[in-house]
Amino acid sequence: MDGLGDYFPFWNALTKAQRDRLAAAARERGYSKGAMLHRGGADCLGLLVVLSGRLRAYVISEEGRELTLYRLLERDVCLLSAACMLRGLRFDVMVSAEADSRVLHIPAEVFREVMEESAPVANYVNALIAERFSDVMWLMDQVLNKKLDARLAAVLLEERALQGSGQLSLTHEQLGGHLGSPREVVTRMLRYFQEEGLVELGRGRLRILDLPGLEALAEGSLR
Amino acid sequence: MDGLGDYFPFWNALTKAQRDRLAAAARERGYSKGAMLHRGGADCLGLLVVLSGRLRAYVISEEGRELTLYRLLERDVCLLSAACMLRGLRFDVMVSAEADSRVLHIPAEVFREVMEESAPVANYVNALIAERFSDVMWLMDQVLNKKLDARLAAVLLEERALQGSGQLSLTHEQLGGHLGSPREVVTRMLRYFQEEGLVELGRGRLRILDLPGLEALAEGSLR
Prior knowledge:
The structure is a homodimer.
Chain A: H1 16-25, E1 27-31, E2 36-39, E3 46-52, E4 55-60, E5 66-72, E6 77-78, E7 94-97, E8 101-107, H2 108-117, H3 119-145, H4 148-163, E9 167-168, H5 172-179, H6 183-195, E10 199-202, E11 205-208, H7 211-220
Antiparallel strand pairs in A: 1-8, 2-7, 3-6, 3-8, 4-5, 4-7, 9-11, 10-11
């Protein structure tokens, strides 16, 4: 497959043999909305580059509650779907397609081989892990230090940006999955938001009525 | 400085020039209990190997509340004190000496130079970041999915292991710093533990009375 150089900043630092190995192994794949791409450490699909669509990385608690760690948009690289090639990684992340998506796939064993000989590739992976680690540290700060109302408001604003509309199609269950909170807790808070005139609730959808109000809530509501 | 090979698994994969560069820059340093080694991204001390003693890595919330991320014991390597050499890292970690400690210090710029040319060093750093990332993911799961009583019990058991005694010298403030909770909340829970016969409280110290009881609480108390 051609054109990998557009996605990987280390491309010109590779030998011809390394470039050929990656290009020969790379495949384009399509996933329908809702498809699971990766289920924790046992899977080791490989490195994924999002060509179009959107992926969601999340963890699941012992009781089955989800918490969204981050989203991967166009040109983002999903590293944790190649967790087996990262020594020291001891947690399970799920990756699913949140919209119909096309991804570029490089099998873990091929990428690992190149990473083990090439300092630029290994340093690129370093920066990727550091970025995801930073995402999670931000989330940890939110979870510990922000109240649920502020976090829910922030998630609604993020969904608005992702869906490109103030008319959101998503369930309370899904919102709970983003926040790591039980559905009932989310429903209670959404009803409060509705009473406050911030949103209007419908079945499987939700309309944002007071954008500045949600923004203020997301920003200012530190405990 | 000699003997670096004992601490770094990549040592034999380096060129002589690289080994000499690291050895010439490495210094042994001592820190007294309570000393700050690193204060977030602005500092960039470098890579630290714990020779003896104990370091604590933690974050601070906007309101000044601490949360312990992990401890570094003998032979552990502290990477986040060289945060400036990690592209993509966007969070501030504090590192302090939790006991009188001796560390081996390699300045960030020297280590970075070697890391940028050497795939084995870059891959070693990969594994280190992945490990710390995993520690934080475990902590996130605790914070989200375990109740404070179970987390406090777990922290007391960890302190018992670190201090090598059931007679712990530590304040409620320090416990709050490990848990990311306000001191008053910790004090309330400790009084409850005392009423239950699990611990006995004193000024700046605490004695574990019922070890199996604390263990059961730490294990079983999932929400």
